[in-house]
Amino acid sequence: MPNLASRALGLSVRTLPGHWEEKHGYKPVLAETFTDIESFEGTCYKAAGWEPCGMTKGFGREHRADFYREHKRPKKIWLKALSRNMRAILCATDVPLNYRAGVNTATPERALPLKKDQIESLREALIQVPDPRRNNATWRIGTLLTLICMGLLAGRKNLAETHRFGQFLTQQQREWLRFLPKAGGVAGRRAPSYQALYTLMKALDPDVLASALNDWLAAHLGTLPRALALDGKYVRDLVLTLAFCEHETGAPVAMTIASKEPKTQKAKTEGELTAAKRLYQSSDIQGATNAFGPIAPSNQGD
User: Fold this and answer.
1) Are residues 181 and 241 in the same domain?
2) Which of 22, 42, 55, 150 has its CA 20 to 30 A from that of 196?
3) What single string gives the DSSP state of each residue in 98-136?
């Protein structure tokens, strides 16, 4: 059959939104793929209406989700619009109601570890940190450092995760952190780029930041959310105990026990993550934070 590859791609793209909505509750508006330029021209993608949009940087993900290794084999990126309103939806100040099911649920407003007045107080304290950048820096140091500290308190483990954390903040939260207005008279505030965060952290003395943050924490002792750590132990490889413990004292606040079947049996065992989710949902620890981020009320399904 002539043009078999492009026909198959076209049929797949036409049925994808409906199948995705049936499975996940919303329709995707954009599809992405890539081709190896050393092996394929990507002719069938071009014939099926996909648009080439540049090249990757030649890195591949290793066994860890946050680690990439350079393999020096860049790929060609292809994009395909799945909706006529694709640009308007992706560029909107707020996500349209029909697409909010696709927003990362780990970063809505309830994921902020501090309240508005605490955020503003932290930003005022971090403004006093000496700025190692040039005087023509676009972003104020207080805004960038507040975002970085908020990301750390929310359980983000590296700068890339902190950058994504800022991208998903609502317009109200962006105003609290004093994000800059969007250019060209467009409504809303834009989040700092990864490069802006990286440039500051590369030049900043970490001891100066730690000192300013420690002073602020000491001044607000007793008024901040409780900090809890999740700790798990196996007893003779048979019983798993999980506990939320206070960071400062190590005292347990909530605990659960998950039985583990002997290795000779084929029955599946309850893993640490399953037991941890059950502990989240059954314990009265709302408003606290731990290494995974803020602990939300159990009726929110976290």
Assistant:
1) no
2) 55
3) GGGGGS-TTSSGGG-SS-HHHHHHHHHHHTTSPP-S-TT
